[in-house]
Amino acid sequence: MKQFILLLFAAGMLSSCERDADIPIKEIDPLLAVHALIGHNQTLQVDVQLVKSIFSDDPDATSLAGATVKVYSDTAEETFVPDALLTGRYKSPNQNGPLATGKSGLTYTVEVSYPGLPTVRGTCTVPEQITTDVEFDYIAQKGNQYQDSIRRFSLSWNNFSGNESYFRFGASADMSGMSELIIQWPEANIKVEAGKQEIETGYGILYSWEPNPSANYLDLRISIRNMDVHLYKYMRTFDLHQFSQDNPFAEPVVPYSNVEGGLGIIGAYTERYYNKSVY
Amino acid sequence: MLLSLSGTGQSTAKHTISGYVKEFGSLEPLLGVNIYVPALETGTTTNTYGFYSITLPEQSDTISIYFSYVGFESKEAEVLLTKSYDLNIQLKSRSDLKEVVVEGKKELTPAEIPQMSRIEIPVHTVRNLPALLGEKDVLKVIQLLPGVQSGGEGQSGVYVRGGGPDQNLIILDDATVYNAQHLFGFFSLFNGDAIRSIELIKGGFPAKYGGRLSSVIDINMKEGNKEKFHGEGGVGIISSRLTLEGPIQKGKSSFLFSGRRTYMDLLIRPFMPADLTAGYFFYDFTAKVNFDIDERNKLYVSSYAGRDKFYFNESYDRDYEFNSKMHWGNFTSTARWNHQFNRKVFANTSLIFSQYQLLIGAEAKESGSDFSLSMTSGIRDYSAKFDVDYLPNTRHSIRTGAQITYHTFTPNAVVVTVNSKNELEEIERYQSFENGIYIQDDIRITSRWRALLGLRLSNFMAEEVNLIRPEPRISTSYMIKKDLSVKASYAVMNQYVHLLTNTGIGLPTDLWVPATQRVAPQQSQQVAAGISKDLEKLGWPKLNFSIEGYYKWSNNVISYKEGASFLALDDPTTGTEVSWEDNVTSGDAESYGVEFLVEKKFGKFTGWMGYTLSWTWFQFAELNNGNRFHPRYDRRHDISLVGVYELSKDITISGTWIYGTGNAVTLPLAGYTATGLPSGANSTPNAIYAQHYGEKNAFRMAAYHRFDLGVQFHKDKGKYERTWEVSVYNLYNQKNPFFYYIAYEQGRNRLKQVTLFPLIPSVSYSFKF
User: Fold this and answer.
1) Three-state SS letters, B470-504
2) Three-class DSSP labels, B82-124
3) N or C, which terminus of chain B has less Cβ within 10 Å?
4) Which ipTM did the prediction report?
5) Mean pLDDT of the residues in chain B
6) DSSP codes joined into one string, B418-434
7) Which residues on adjacent β-strands are paired with residue B15?
């Protein structure tokens, strides 16, 4: 019996606790990832990557030259050409053509094909331009010995469209002309229900430095983007993915995609900037 | 029904026989004892306190009443039904018999028991089966039953019919236990030496239970031996335990005290450097006293206290000291008063306290200044409960009652002090009432057809919520033949408390929170149907076979949102500070399956074979792009083989083999660069390395299987009995995956698996006197 017990102990101790998983892994077939963020009056460009299984010999996605990229709008249709400066990027062949830049109110379809791979496509509509002004409150709160100072502000404005809308806010501040001290607030994605006329948001950030007594004002620069629903969903998962990837307890984030048969996003937005000095 | 309550309509005089059924020698009450009168083809069972009452028509001759209970010798009583009287019965435990007794008279088979989806787990089975590191574990034995599964390697979390571990109502002497696990889920709270009975209900829930969707695990503590002083204990690899019990006043009152503590921390202490101490241990204590005030009144007071403690302290010279700790644990206390109004009416009143608390603390002292941080979370309940059993005649067994519970939830309480002054004090607290009233009638419609009809009205009141929801409960059984019955049930359940958990492995950071205006209560409906067959006539004596199918649909089941966890203080997509309500999303769940069970409860060889074929689906608007997906614990096939063989009176051999389809998990399939909008006025788009996961939980871990073997050597040493147990967990050293990760090795990504428990032998010593 004693020998048997010793044998069991030895077998247990020799057991490895970590090893290659002994299960068949079904590798995914290569597929296309397409990113086209179409802004009003912004250059319309399409980025294409070839995505391979993470367990393949060459798992890194590669920017793909040689793809056929077709873009359709309500009024035009073009086959885009590779950008001379960046592999995998495609632009309109006509710099002044109807598809060179995005236009508010138009619906765009992007279709990408590559030999041996299924053709993928996605559609988006560039939202209305932002016309109303913004009111905002700013709060600066000095932290104690063990806390950083908190700088927080909130925005409010009328939802000009009155429909369900999706916005992304960003802000940065220049501390009293001290250009090396730029505050960049995290950007926020907000969904506004249909019929709701006023929206608010607020966000803050912690800084480890004491406010400079001479820095008695901030030059705030606020960006507001009106996004279509696909871009809104995508940016939410994009941010979540970015912020949760170092948290082992966080649920995995599945990046949103409206690219049928592939990955990525065909999304649209309009944007507007506001400058304000806060004392 | 009211007409029939007054009697059967005949003029025959009726007489009531009532009393208690207790264990011979200790006077422990026995619950669920079957009492059967073959001459009249009727019967009843004892309640939680061992009380029974049966009203029968007058007979000119004596008739037999049989008392039978699993693990106990059956008893026959001859009675003359010419008047009502008390009849107290004592049954002898088979473990007290020096030889294995061949059963004599009538034992009720599962085919004759009306309720379905209900399993009683004999405490001696828990003691006999092999266990991880020799630590006997009630919940891990429950995991071996069909329809029940574990969450992962070594875990005590119980998943019943597709429900999560938060959906089990775990009750210890009427008190809800919120976190039933020690050591991050590897061991359960319950010390088997202090337990009298364990009952699992998976469906067809009696109306007295409410508040959870998936199951009830009702555990009753022993009361303590009323006849003589008795003790038992044991020494194992990681813990030791001791239970003492005995009479306070012989035959009238008794006490029980039981304690257990692990000593890993004590063993490693000598190897620690002088300026550093760190360790982990858990302990639990159970205490109970009870008094038979008179024939009609009994009083019970019981308490459980358990705590896990992890600590890390270091100090360098006199100037610097840093102490940190994480403590968590449950405390429950119950005072119960039984009052027998007359031979037909029995009442119990309970006052209950239950608390689960997690404390994370750190303090630093340096050069005369100090800093401390403490974070607590938990839940505290005060409850009052009143139950009445009314047994007017043999056709009806009526039970009614009410319960009121005052919950205090503390999802988060943070206190920061600097130089002994409070610098920050943030306490998030919610109060609510959860109440219920119920009535149910166990009706013997004919000698073959029984129905359990019940209705529970549940109520939840919080700051902005006031809900009243009816919960109908129906169970019925029809005995086609003496050895074959069909059963069906339907139950509606509501759950007003939610458990926020990322891992499902029972971390102390899992958080209980109330239903709110934004986070609605969970609700489920379950239908089940089954057949129970005694196989004796087919040539397999003492074997019972049952098959049950179920379909359960639930709504407002909650889950963390993608990217969310208990660590998330801000929502990265809005930038705003978030509360727990912002981190969760709710959806629907659907589960269905078939469970097969063949069991042998008597004889030298006992055990069971269970097989479950099941599916569980979730659908959340905010998860997996709104598509249906399997939760992590969806398990297509689940098999358990359990056997205990008494080789001789000195040697018991036991073994379990389990097999389960691998957990459903999410693994990355590919990586690519995802482009986002530029930040602010910056013209360069953001880009991140994104992983493509495909559908959520679309990947199956390798199937889990293992065989455990244990041998117990018993010896009667005159003044005491001792047992040596040698057991091996995972005898054939199966490398079961605990989790997977991807590592870049030899020029490519590889899927690696981590195994937690290879072959683990253990030895333990137990004694009793």
Assistant:
1) EEEEEEEEEEEECCEEEEEEEEEEEECEEEECCCC
2) CCCEECCEEECEHHHCCCCCCCCCCCCCHHHCCCCCEEEECHH
3) N
4) 0.84
5) 86
6) ETTEEEEEEEEEEEEEE
7) B56
Nearest CA to B53 out of B398, B453, B294, B441 is that of B398
- 333-372 of B, contacting A, C-beta below 8 A: 371
Residue matched to tokens 């002497």: B173
- C-alpha distances (whole Å) from A92 to each of A40, A74, A89 are 15, 16, 11
Both structure tokens of A16: 């490895």
Give exposure, A251-265, as e/b (b: 16+ Cβ within 10 Å): bbbbbbbbbeebbbb
Compute CA B33 distance to the chain's CA centroid, rounded to the nearest angstrom: 21
Assess contact for B55 and B257: CB atoms under 8 A: no
Alpha carbon separation from B766 to A181, B223, B241, B243, B716 (Å, rounded): 69, 21, 9, 11, 12
Q: Looking up tokens 């793909």, which residue turns up?
A: A64
Cβ neighbour number for residue B74 with a 10 Å cutoff: 20
Task: Please name the residues between 616 and 645 in chain B that touch chain A, using a CB distance below 8 Å.
Answer: 624-625
CB contact at 8 A, A68 and A30: no
Structure tokens at B572: 């990265």
| Contact criterion met (CB < 8 Å) for A146 and B564 | no
Per DSSP, what are the bridge partners of residue B415?
A: B374, B425
State the DSSP string of B193-208: GGEEEEEEE-SS--TT
Asked if B527 and B549 touch (Cβ cutoff 8 Å), the reply is: no
**Cβ–Cβ of A237/B562 closer than 8 Å?**
yes
Contact A17 B685 (CB under 8 A): no
Pick from A69, A49, A68: nearest CA to A60: A49
Cβ partners under 8 Å of residue B718, min gap 6 = none
Q: Closest chain B residue to A232 measured between Cα atoms?
A: B573
> Is B684 in the A-facing interface, judged by CB distances under 8 Å?
no
Give the pLDDT confidence of B501-543 residue by residue, as tens digits. 765 555 666 778 889 888 899 999 999 999 998 887 777 767 8
Look at A59 and B737 and tell me if their CB atoms are within 8 Å: no
Average pLDDT, chain A: 78
